[in-house]
Amino acid sequence: MEQESDAYEPIDDEKIPHLISQAELNDLVRDLGLMKKAELLGSESPLCNSNILLVKEKLIGLIPKLDKEFLVSFDVYPNKFVAGYHSVIHFTIGSNVDHYGDRVPGIWFHEKEKGSLYISAPINGNVDKGFITDPIKLNHWSNVKVSQILKNSDYVYTIILNEKVVHSETNNKAQSFDNVLVYASDPWHDAQDGLIRNLFIINGISKNGLQPIVIISADIDECANLINYCDWENSDCVNTNGYYFTCNCVAYYSMYCNHENIDCLNNNQTISFTCKSGWRLKNNSCVDIDECANLTDYCNWANSDCVNTNGSYYCTCKPGWRLNNNSCV
C-alpha cells in the first residue's frame, strides 16, 4: 500500500467515545428488512450466512450512496499467507487509490506482516489512511468490523478485530460517496486465498436513516448452460457478470439483439425481443422505467421518498425520519 499507519497499539474500550450497543444493532437489522423493492445485504440476505470465495475482480455489491455513518462486519478465513498484498474486500468509488473514496474501506492481508490485515479508509483528507493489525490465525475464522458512527458532533472511525477495539479516531472530513462498488476481492491486487462469511453492512445509522445496498448476484454462465438462449442463426451468446447475457448477432441482426436488458426470441426466422422487468423499449434498446416519476405511488406513506435506480427503485424516509414498519417515524 502507498501509506501505512504506526504499529499496532491496543486501545482501552472505555476510552472509545461511541460503540453501538447490541440492542441498537438488532433494531437496525430489523429495519433493514423493511425496505421495499431493493435487495439488501442484511439479515434476510443469502450472502449474510454463506461462504464467499475470494476471487480477483469479484463484484458482489453496489451501494448507490454510502452514508457518512456505516458499519461493515464479516468473518475471514485465510488458507495461507504469501508475500505481497492480497485483497479481501474493497469498497471503492471506482479506482484503487486515486481519489478520496477509493477505499471506504479496503482490507488486505499485509505485504510483510505475515497474517496481519491492512485496513484503509479516507480519514481527515488522507485517501489511504492505513492501519496494520496484529496477525490473525491461519485456517481459523476471525471477525472484522469497520465502522464510522456519529457520536455527539464527531464522526468516529473504529476498527474492531475479534471483538477487541484496535483502533479509533475522529474523522473531521467524513463524507458520503455515490455509487460505491463492493469487491471480494478487488481488480488491482491478487485475491487472498480464503473465504469470507457473515458479510453484514449497515449504511446510514442515526442522521440520514438506513440507505439501500444492492446485491450483485453471483455470476452464472448462461451461455454454458444446456439451454441455448441465443438459438437462432448467426448469433453468439456472450456471458456477462450476474444473471445477464447478451446475444451478439452478425450483419443486420445486430441492431436488435446486442443491447443490454433485452430478451431475444427466435420465431420462424424472425427475431422478437422484450425488455426485462423494470425496463422499457425505446429506439431499439431498453431504457430504465422511472417508477418514481409514474403516477403510481410506490412509497405511499407520509414523509417517504421514492428513489429510482436502474431497473428498480427503493423507498427511504425524508431527513429526520426513520423507516419503521412501512412508515416513517
Quick take:
By secondary structure, this protein is mostly beta strands. It has helices at 22-32, 254-257; strands at residues 52-53, 59-66, 70-78, 86-92, 106-109, 117-123, 126-132, 142-151, 154-161, 164-170, 177-183, 190-191, 194-203, 214-215, 235-239, 245-249, 262-267, 270-275, 279-282, 285-288, 304-309, 312-317. It starts with 21 loop residues before the first helix and ends in a 12-residue tail after the last strand.
| Structure class | mainly beta
End-to-end gap: 44 Å
Radius of gyration: 22 Å
Biggest β-sheet description = 8 strands, mixed
Q: Low-confidence spans: pLDDT under 50, at least 5 residues?
A: 2-48, 225-229, 248-258, 266-272
Residues in helices, as a percent range: under 10%
Judging from the principal axes of the Cα atoms, what is the shape? Answer: globular
Q: Write the H/E string, N to C.
A: HEEEEEEEEEEEEEEEEHEEEEEE
What's the β-strand tally? 22
Please, what is the average pLDDT? 73
Number of helices: 2
> Beta fraction of the residues?
35-45%
